[in-house]
Amino acid sequence: MKKVNIKKTRNQKPKDDQSLDAVLRPFSWNDYIGQKRIKKGLKIILEAANKRNEPFDHLLFYGQPGLGKTTLAHLIAAESKSNLRVVSGPSLSRIGDLAAILSNLEEKDILFIDEAHRVPRPVEELFYSAIDERKIHLTLGKGPSARAISLDLPYFTLICATTRVNLISPPLRSRFGAIFRFDYYEKQDIEAIVERSAKILGFEIASEAVSAIARASRFTPRLANRLLKRSRDFAEMRNLKIIDKEIVSETFKILEIDEMGLESYDRHLLKMIIEKFGGGPVGVNALTAALGEEKGVIEEVYEPYLIKIGFLQRTPIGRMATEETYKWLNIAR
Ligand SMILES: Nc1ncnc2c1ncn2[C@@H]1O[C@H](COP(=O)(O)OP(=O)(O)O)[C@@H](O)[C@H]1O
Ligand SMILES: [Mg+2]
Fold first, then answer.
1. What ligand 1 atom has the least distance to the C-alpha of 73?
2. Residue 140's pLDDT band (boundaries 50, 70, 90)?
3. Distance, C-alpha 114 to centroid of its chain
4. Residue 87: helix, strand or coil by DSSP?
5. d(Cα 125, Cα 252) in Å, to the nearest integer?
6. What topology does CATH give the domain 264-329?
7. Does the domain made of 187-255 have the CATH classification 1.10.8.60?
8. Atom 23 of ligand 1: nearest residue by CA position
9. With left for phi above 0 and alpha for psi between -120 and 50, is residue 26 left, alpha or beta?
């Protein structure tokens, strides 16, 4: 069987896509399509805080990459006319890094920590007093000359985003006023996003092409936008004025994704279950060993979409391929 490097294909976000994200990012509630449950909950929190003239509760966003967590943090800042300070978890490797950021916050700022599960525990502990008493306690120097100092912080709101909520420690988790789980989008929401993006990027797209992109997008806005952008590149190369279904299909072929949005690592995982474990049930530990991937990553990053589309079943005795899986991969039972 062909060896696929799962780690490399998943989680990577080319530079090009980062600027695409920025261009297509909605900044108003109206343009933020779908996720009705989250929007409703958030609006209540924001309005209540506004009435009391207080900063709103600290928030935790979690869910798969590309579902709109960062976008929502930007939108909240725009709506509440606050400054957003964006920091990524891995960049906070020392206590001093976070202390410097916290002590530079201004009244009503929003501090957005992306990939919050990658903040090291000793650094994370600084948040506890920052949230509980709006103070941080630091020890300066070492040995007999060391001294403890406390710094007062302004009113601020912390928003953390993560793809791995199980890695956020319970003491931090319990300090958020609200926790929001981001779900996959409805197909018609993705279609609306694709249409909006095409308009912003300034080109025409056939409705069949919109539908094909939505179907292969893994119900994820970022991936839908990426497929749209690649299809546009192809259409331009061919001097076509409109993106049609054929162009989209060709784009999928080149990107090596199929019509359901499965990539090589998804097929690898499913074929492994079928060919090596007789279709399952196979325990996640055996699967982990066979794929050479962390258990949490398999459970939180690879499996959810496969489960969502009914290509994988989680049972008490292990993972199983389904009738649909065999059919889609064209493997006889
Ligand atoms: N609700 C939405 N409506 C329209 N576009 C969205 C929505 N959510 C995300 N997007 C698009 O997807 C891109 C990726 O979203 P992002 O917030 O960066 O995801 P995450 O932070 O969850 O990984 C955004 O730049 C935006 O273009
Ligand atoms: Mg993000």
1. 17
2. confident
3. 10
4. strand
5. 45
6. Arc Repressor Mutant, subunit A (1.10.10)
7. yes
8. 66
9. beta
